[in-house]
Each structure stands twice: as structure tokens, then as C-alpha cells.
Design brief:
Blueprint (H helix, E strand, L loop, with lengths): L1 H30 L4 H33 L11 H15 L5 H22 L6 H21 L3 H12 L7 H20 L1 H7 L11 H23 L5 H13 L3 H25 L8 H21 L1
């Protein structure tokens, strides 16, 4: 027991050190060779957006993994991000860019309804990710179909959205994301004991309305992920990596897991965005490319570990 406590404390110390180093790097980026306008209207909103969007994706990933009881579940691996991208494409090509968030949200909701029905009625939890891959392929093909008929301007917008880019961050978008994230975190924290009870086979016997909790939680988690897609495009794998690392640090208790998943999601996306801005400086790489590369490595590791 004593060794286990030491092991946990070491991890927390490492997280603290990494957080401090990341904070120093971000402060350096914000203030390095910039006037007041660049600092407060371009760089600062981007840094805040990276932290908030990462927290949103980390939280939504933890919720989906808890509800679906599959630690490989996330908005990206389940195809929700691709459904939202189809909604964005639909809005840009057919609606002239109107109702973009509503279209993205409906696309994500369509995916989660399909996942919910298939996972509980047809497919087992073990084949859930394969189902998500198939659904992602369907919505990706629908997006490509719309791209074929899009104008050059519309096509460039869709491609930029598919990359995932935080350079579009504004204080208005950040305010919306912060507001939605705080309300969502409060709700899930009040339901932390219900999520802990889901780990019990007969959770309904301890007073948990599993169906109601699942529907509301997946709805909110989808809202969080589609909101990020509608503002900043597809940013993959943060919702997969953050909850996994959070479990290694705080265990499976949702009293701490929700908060730690959000914190690690914010840190991972902030670090990825820092790499995106500095690796090929002065050229900036879309952050979605960085997160997909890092996430694919972790995803393969988790698959191999699960097989063992």
C-alpha cells in the first residue's frame, strides 16, 4: 500500500513539473516579439481556446468511456467528429454557412444515436470501435460527396475545418466554450457517484437510472465535441488519451476522474498547439495533425495492451 501511494505521488509530481514547464512555454509564446494587439487579440485567445477545447474533449471522452464501458471510446474514434464535420460541410455547401453549429450538432447526434442503438442492441462493447470506424467512413464519404460539388472557397473552408486549427479563436468563441464546459463539468460532477455505480453489474439495484443517465450524458458529451468541431474543426484523440492518462494518475473514481481528464486534455492540446506553432517556425501546422499523430501512437498501444 505504501509503495502504491509513492507511485501515485510520483505521477502527481511529474504532472506538476510538466504543467509548470508548459506554462512557461505558453507565456513565452504569448509575449515573444509581439505588440499589444498581437498579444491580446491573436495569441491569448488561441492559448485560452487550446486549454478550454482540450478540457471539453477530455471530459467528453471520459463520459463516453464510462457510459459505453469501453476505454477506447472517444468523440474521434466513435465517428462523432466526422459526423459533425459532415454537418459543417452541409452548412457551407448547401446553406451558405448558416446554422453551422446546429448542423454540426445534428451530425454528431446522428452518430451517437447510431452508436447507442448498435452498442446496446446489436454489437458488443468489444466491437464498438469497429462500429465507430464504419460510421466514420460513411460520414467521411458523405463529406467528400459534398466537397465534389463545392466551390473553391467552400472547399478550402471544409479542408481547413477537417485539419483542426485553433488560429480561428476569438474571445466570443472562447466565452461560449468556457460557459458550456463549466455547466457540463458541474452536471457530471453531481453525477459522479452514478458513474461509479455504473461499474457495478447490477447498477440499477443501487438506485441509478442507467438509461436516463446514458442518454443525457451522451447528449452533453456530443454537444461538447460538436461545439469544438463547429468552431475549430476536427481535433482527434484528445478525448481518448486524456481519460486514459487520468486513470493512471487518480484511478477509476469519477469524483476525481472527470476533473483530471479535463486538466490533462487542456494540457495535451496546449502542448500540441505549441508544437504546431514551433516545429516548422515560421510555418504553422494545424494542431489536428499533431494530435492525430500522437493519438494514433497511443491508440495502437492501447489496442495492443488490450489484446494482451
Amino acid at each position: 500500500m505504501r509503495d502504491f501511494i509513492k507511485y501515485k505521488n510520483k505521477k502527481r509530481v511529474l504532472i506538476g513539473i510538466f504543467s509548470f514547464i508548459l506554462f512557461v512555454m505558453l507565456v513565452f509564446f504569448v509575449f515573444y516579439k509581439a505588440d499589444e494587439f498581437v498579444i491580446f487579440h491573436i495569441r491569448l485567445p488561441r492559448v485560452i481556446a487550446a486549454a478550454v477545447v482540450g478540457a471539453m474533449l477530455g471530459l467528453s471522452g471520459a463520459v463516453m468511456q464510462g457510459i459505453l464501458k469501453n476505454y477506447l471510446a472517444s468523440p474521434f474514434t466513435l465517428g462523432i467528429s466526422h459526423g459533425a464535420l459532415f454537418g459543417v460541410s452541409f452548412s457551407l455547401v448547401l446553406l451558405g454557412g448558416s446554422f453551422m453549429f446546429l448542423s454540426a450538432f445534428l451530425g454528431g447526434i446522428a452518430v451517437i444515436i447510431m452508436i447507442f442503438l448498435l452498442s446496446f442492441r446489436i454489437f458488443s462493447k468489444e466491437t464498438l470501435i469497429l462500429c465507430g470506424i464504419a460510421i466514420s467512413a460513411v460520414f467521411s464519404s458523405l463529406s467528400m460527396f459534398l466537397q465534389y460539388f463545392a466551390s473553391d472557397v467552400e472547399l478550402s473552408h471544409i479542408i481547413n475545418w477537417s485539419f483542426g486549427d485553433l488560429s480561428k479563436a476569438t474571445y466570443e468563441s472562447v466565452k461560449v466554450c468556457v460557459f458550456v464546459f463549466i455547466l457540463s463539468l458541474i452536471y457530471f460532477y453531481t453525477k459522479r457517484w452514478d458513474f461509479n455505480a455504473l461499474e457495478i453489474e447490477e447498477s440499477e439495484n443501487v438506485g441509478v437510472d442507467v438509461k436516463r443517465l446514458s442518454i443525457i450524458s451522451l447528449f452533453i458529451a456530443t454537444f461538447l465535441s460538436t461545439l469544438s468541431v463547429s468552431y475549430f474543426g476536427i481535433i482527434g484523440f484528445i478525448g481518448l488519451i486524456a481519460p486514459h492518462f487520468a486513470r493512471l494518475i487518480v484511478g477509476g473514481n469519477y469524483e476525481y476522474l472527470f476533473f483530471m481528464s479535463a486538466v490533462l486534455g487542456a494540457m495535451l492540446l496546449s502542448f500540441s498547439d505549441f508544437l504546431a506553432r514551433t516545429l516548422l517556425y515560421p510555418v504553422e501546422i494545424p494542431v489536428g495533425i499533431i494530435t492525430s499523430f500522437l493519438g494514433a501512437i497511443v491508440f495502437l498501444y492501447l489496442l495492443l495492451r488490450k489484446r494482451k
